[in-house]
């Protein structure tokens, strides 16, 4: 399971020809990736995550679910901006097992606090989004609203969209790696 994750991440960060992200990321051919955070090495702790990842510019995050699914997201905005509640549309989600990219339907907003990272619709009302939640030495990902927030043209059934990224929702994250995109 972990070997599959590392192989798929290596294809992307080493810019192999079969990269899912190669036609999407700006300046992909000349870009570099620097590993900022690896949960299994640095700990499944939100404080460490924030120390290593905040204010680092564009980032690419890869996750491995307990169901052996490999997916992630690209954020084009510097973390310092969305810590203060900035609004950004360039929050793209990708599913490496299915080799798909998913753009938001509407403008999205990132909210970060001490225990979670939430990508939510910027409608000014309540919470409609997906989240990465840090709990005691583990990370839980929730994607119940994925099908409502992101383009998924080949799905009709909403329940399929909820489990598309990680195999179910919510689910435990077994590994998480965050790369600075330089």
Which key features would you list for this structure?
182 residues, single chain, TLDc domain-containing protein, alpha+beta, 6 helices, 11 strands, TLDc_dom
How does the SSE layout of this entry go?
Blueprint: H1 2-13, E1 33-38, H2 39-42, H3 46-53, E2 59-65, E3 70-75, H4 79-83, E4 87-88, E5 91-95, E6 100-102, E7 108-112, E8 116-121, E9 129-135, E10 138-142, H5 146-149, H6 158-164, E11 171-181
Antiparallel strand pairs: 1-11, 2-3, 2-11, 3-5, 4-7, 5-6, 7-8, 8-9, 9-10, 10-11
Description of the molecule:
The protein is built from six helices and eleven strands. With 182 residues, the protein is an alpha+beta fold. The chain has one domain.
Helix count, DSSP H or I runs of 4 or more residues: 6
Mean pLDDT: 82
Helix content: 10-25%
Distance between the termini: 28 Å
* Percentage of residues in DSSP E strands: 25-35%
Radius of gyration based on Cα positions: 15 Å
In short:
With 182 residues, this protein is of the alpha+beta class.
